[in-house]
């Protein structure tokens, strides 16, 4: 969902929660809250000119998503237990969640991030005052709906771990990933595109029991199309319910699936549901 970069930004929407605020202070080295806010606002303005997305307009990028997931601690344990374990953040934007996972112990050279726009990752270095040398995590720019970048077709058969310096697309990682985090991305696509993406992401996972895909996005108690006004325009979002979402992953399996809805009420009384989910590889 793209919107015009001429849409006015609203600084009053800035309001990171205490955990996010502390994280940003640690990662940027900016301890003064007013100075940090001005720094974030400056990055937001640059990013919105490149990618006028609602999540940038609403400061969604200041929220930590990965660490709120029920599977997060078990994923960090996989990183400690499996030699060469690889974690992918799908739809990473500035790389906030990748940096959170690294801060919590995931090896930086085994962290991979992807988004459709290279510029957002580059602005992430500006946001967090880092460089590719100080934060040497792999980023791959590409369209996750493009089969030449990510496909459900069988990939390379080289044994893990792959040489990340040679990776040019997600297809090079088929069957290699220990975990994939995917929040606030699936609901951007049509029902058919979401179903296809499930199969493609499932193909990235290692066949080892316990490999996991996890995340959250907008859902509904009964699957269907949700219509909402964003920046004065009516947008349609196709939402799965937990039962139908679990079935998509079960069909791409073998997976143990979990999904639940949490009701959220907006400032104008509008109701939405956030679906938190995971699909964990089981023995064949």
TrEMBL record:
It comes from the Eukaryota. InterPro entries: Meroterpenoid_MTases (IPR051654), SAM-dependent_MTases_sf (IPR029063). Keywords: S-adenosyl-L-methionine, Transferase. Gene3D superfamilies: Vaccinia Virus protein VP39. It comes from Rhizopogon vinicolor AM-OR11-026. Signal peptide: none annotated. Belongs to the class I-like SAM-binding methyltransferase superfamily. PANTHER family: METHYLTRANSFERASE AUSD. One of its GO terms (molecular function) is transferase activity. Pathway: Secondary metabolite biosynthesis. This is Methyltransferase domain-containing protein.
């Amino acid at each position: 969902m793209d919107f015009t970069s001429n849409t006015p930004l609203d600084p009053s929407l800035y309001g990171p929660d205490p955990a996010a605020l502390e994280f940003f202070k640690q990662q940027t080295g900016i301890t003064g809250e007013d100075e940090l806010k001005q720094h974030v606002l400056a990055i937001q303005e640059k990013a919105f000119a490149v990618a006028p997305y609602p999540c940038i307009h609403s400061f969604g990028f200041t929220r930590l998503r990965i660490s709120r997931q029920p599977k997060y601690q078990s994923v960090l344990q996989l990183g400690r237990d499996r030699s060469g374990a690889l974690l992918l953040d799908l739809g990473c934007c500035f790389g906030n969640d990748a940096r959170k996972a690294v801060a919590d112990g995931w090896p930086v050279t085994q962290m991979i991030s992807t988004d459709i726009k290279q510029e957002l990752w580059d602005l992430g270095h500006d946001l967090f005052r880092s460089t590719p040398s100080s934060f040497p995590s792999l980023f791959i720019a590409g369209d996750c709906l493009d089969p030449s970048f990510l496909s459900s077709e069988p990939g390379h058969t080289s044994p893990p771990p792959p040489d990340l310096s040679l990776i040019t697309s997600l297809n090079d990682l088929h069957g290699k990933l220990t975990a994939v985090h995917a929040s606030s991305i699936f609901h951007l696509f049509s029902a058919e595109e979401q179903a296809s993406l499930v199969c493609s992401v499932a193909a990235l996972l290692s066949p080892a029991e316990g490999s996991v895909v996890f995340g959250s996005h907008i859902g509904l108690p009964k699957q269907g199309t949700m219509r909402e006004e964003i920046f004065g325009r009516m947008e349609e979002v196709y939402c799965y319910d937990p039962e139908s979402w679990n079935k998509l992953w079960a069909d791409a399996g073998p997976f143990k699936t979990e999904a639940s809805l949490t009701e959220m009420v907006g400032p104008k009384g509008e109701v939405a549901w956030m679906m938190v989910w995971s699909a964990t590889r089981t023995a064949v």
